[in-house]
Design brief:
- The chain is 33% helix and 24% strand.
- By secondary structure, the chain is α+β, with helices and mostly antiparallel strands.
- It has four domains: 335 residues, Aminopeptidase (3-Layer(aba) Sandwich); 42 residues, no CATH class; 110 residues, no CATH class; 45 residues, no CATH class.
- The longest helix has 21 residues.
């Protein structure tokens, strides 16, 4: 009996100890003045994992810093296999934090969100309809590079991480090309989850205004005819109203239209595939980037971000089937789509009006530089209707082929396609195929490095029909897939963020074989004698004194017209089989 009493007493005491576990976050304990370190954040999620069956902390992949990429899952069904979650019929909300490690609002907001969901303090019964997935720290290297001197313009917290990752790359320019281990991990999570909603949390730079939080959403002109009315007519109105009720009113991200002050006009942020919202858009996921305002106190920014995430989770929990069905049907439409816009430009002939709350701006003389400086007067707030340029039009449109063909030699490209859910087939024997081929006639290259690359722009192409030899194991990619937008936008060389733009095919841009002039003289003479038309063109060029004065230039002109000239030079190595 005595032993039983001791056991019962110990059991009761143990229950009491567990009940007393402190789940208050560092942000809350410090009244919003501090954010967690990497180690503190992961330990907090381990604590939630230990005490709540609905929460799981897992590792998926690694990062450039050599630390694991973590994922936190909330699921009332206590199911944490991503492939099972994807097909469970639940709505999936995926949140990415600290892509810029100095912008910590989402880190602290997500910790409170997952805790409150697990404790049943928010969403209540409707939480059973959704799964919430959180990357607590995407830019682990940046989070570890912590200092009170990062983010010079930001109003708290006291210490934050650095914008670049462990290799000084900006992860929010890497979604379409994956030059980082971090992004390969993100791709793995994203495609296993196939989320319905995605949020990337940020803190803005730029103008001063009254709002604590601003919003970027998918560029509406790129959306399917099923998702566009949902986003524009239902989801965004709901969120704007929700945030107004929470006393954190929303406005579109402040991207000033060719001037210095917001009241002179705003433009929608371009939804390019290198950015998170543009990338998820390729796969029919409805994406948002929250941009809380750097000059507002950290506590207000975090709470605004928290309420936005909570509101979006609330919407998804109540409209799960509508969202899932719209996305599923949109994927079928994309699989049948025949034309794709691969570049877009702002249509400045169209605009809408938004009621904007700003501060009066003026220029005063700087006491430092003695030059004019922009000054926003917070004692002079205003509310006025301003032009919002939120229409884009296609600037480059291509017809989809039946197949793209890619040599297995370009495995870095093929691996990226496969990692994004693209189904490929391999050629089972050596063969020669008649294909449409692009030749790169002209392009411009950035003079300064950008994210470890020298991107190509202003691409000029010619298109011919060629007989090309392919080998066993080379790849055929049928353009009849839900991933068609990714396929076309990455493989078409004029695409806004194509693999060509990001230097994946640069070896074709320089010549590998040349000639020795003293040897080629006799061959060149023979070529001209055997080709009267070519000879006539050459003799006409010799009337130009500059051309005639340069022996190498003359021989090189003949060499380029000869069968000796390398056929792969400037030949884009992704070929098309048309319909």
């Amino acid at each position: 009996m005595r032993l039983s009493i001791i056991f019962i007493t110990f059991f009761i005491l143990n229950l009491g100890l567990k009940a007393q576990v402190d789940f208050t976050s560092k942000f809350e304990k410090t009244n919003g003045s501090e954010t967690v370190t990497y180690y503190e954040g992961i330990e907090y999620y381990r604590l939630l994992d230990e005490h709540f069956a609905s929460v799981k902390l897992i590792e998926i992949g690694t990062t450039d810093a050599g630390f694991p990429l973590h994922l936190v899952l909330f699921n009332t069904d206590e199911e944490f296999d991503l492939s099972v979650i994807k097909n469970s019929g639940k709505g999936v909300l995926f949140i990415n934090n600290a892509i810029h490690a100095g912008e910590t609002d989402g880190v602290d907001a997500s910790m409170m969100l997952i805790r409150n969901l697990a404790q049943g303090k928010i969403l209540k019964d409707s939480s059973k309809n959704i799964v919430v997935a959180v990357i607590p720290f995407f830019n682990v290297g940046g989070v570890l590079n912590r200092s009170k001197y990062n983010r010079v313009n930001q109003n708290g917290p006291s210490e934050v991480g650095f914008r670049g990752n462990a290799r000084s790359l900006n992860l929010n320019r890497d979604f379409s090309k994956a030059n980082t281990k971090n992004m390969w991990g993100f791709w793995d999570i994203f495609h296993k989850l196939d989320p319905d909603f995605f949020i990337d949390t940020h803190v803005s730079n730029g103008a001063d205004y009254q709002y604590t939080i601003t919003l970027i959403s998918n560029q509406k002109d790129k959306l399917s005819p099923l998702i566009k009315p949902l986003l524009e007519g239902a989801i965004k109105p709901y969120m704007y109203d929700y945030m107004e009720q929470k006393q954190y009113p929303l406005t579109p991200y402040i991207n000033v239209y060719g001037v210095t002050q917001p009241d002179e006009g705003l433009t929608e942020f371009p939804d390019w595939p290198r950015y998170s919202s543009g990338y998820v858009n390729l796969f029919q996921t409805i994406g948002f980037i929250t941009e809380s305002h750097m000059l507002k106190p950290n506590k207000e920014r975090v709470m605004a971000t928290y309420h936005f995430i909570n509101g979006l989770a609330d919407y998804l929990s109540k409209s799960t089937q509508t969202i899932i069905e719209a996305r599923a049907k949109s994927k079928l439409l994309v699989a049948e789509q025949k034309e794709f816009a691969i570049k877009w430009e702002l249509d400045d002939t169209k605009s809408t009006k938004i009621n904007f709350k700003g501060y009066e701006g003026s220029f005063t003389k700087s006491s430092v530089t003695k030059q004019p400086r922009l000054f926003y007067n917070r004692n002079k707030p205003y509310e006025k209707w301003v032009d919002y340029y939120n229409f884009f039009k296609p600037s480059v449109v291509v017809s989809a082929p039946k197949f793209y063909l890619v040599s297995k030699a370009w495995d870095d490209v093929v691996l990226r396609l496969k990692a994004n859910g693209v189904v490929t087939k391999t050629i089972n024997h050596d063969t020669t195929i008649s294909v449409s081929a692009y030749r790169i006639e002209d392009y411009e290259t950035m003079k300064n490095p950008y994210e470890g690359h020298y991107p190509h722009t202003s691409v000029v192409l010619s298109k011919t029909v060629e007989s090309v030899k392919f080998f066993k194991g080379d790849y055929m990619i049928e353009v009849n897939q839900p991933t068609n937008r990714f396929i076309v936008e990455m493989l078409e060389p004029k695409g806004e963020d194509s693999f060509f733009k990001w230097n994946f095919f640069d070896p074709i841009l320089d010549r590998k074989e040349h000639f020795s002039g003293y040897v080629f003289e006799e061959i060149a003479e023979s070529i001209l004698n055997e080709n009267p038309k070519l000879n006539k063109q050459f003799r006409a060029l010799q009337k130009d004194s500059v051309f005639a004065s340069n022996r190498y230039t003359q021989l090189d002109w003949i060499y380029k017209k000869s069968p000796y000239f390398e056929k792969t030079y400037l030949l884009y190595p992704v070929f098309r089989i048309e319909h």
